[in-house]
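Hi P.,

Sorry for the delay on this. The queue was packed all week, but I finally got your sequence through. Input first:
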Amino acid sequence: MSERPHVSSYASITEAVIGFAHLLRQEGWTVGVQETQDALVAASNGTLDKPDTFKYALKAIFCINKEESERFEPFFERFWGKRKGAVKSRMT
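Then the structure:
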C-alpha cells in the first residue's frame, strides 16, 4: 500500500490544494473544477493562518452530504496535518 500524499510533498500551496482535491476525488467525493477553484480561493484568503477556519472552509466546499462530512476530517488531518519535514508556503 502506498503512502497517502501530504502537503509537504508539494512545491506550493496551490499544488497541494489541487492534490487534496484529487485525493478526495479518488476516495469517491464528487469534486470538480469549481470546487477546486473555490478551495484555492479559500486558501488565498488568509485561511491558511487559521487551521480550523481552513479545514471548515474546505469541508463546506467539498462535502455535499452527511457521509462525506463524517469522513472528511481524517482525510484532512492526514493530508494537511503536521509531518516531519512539512513546510509552509505562500500561494503561487
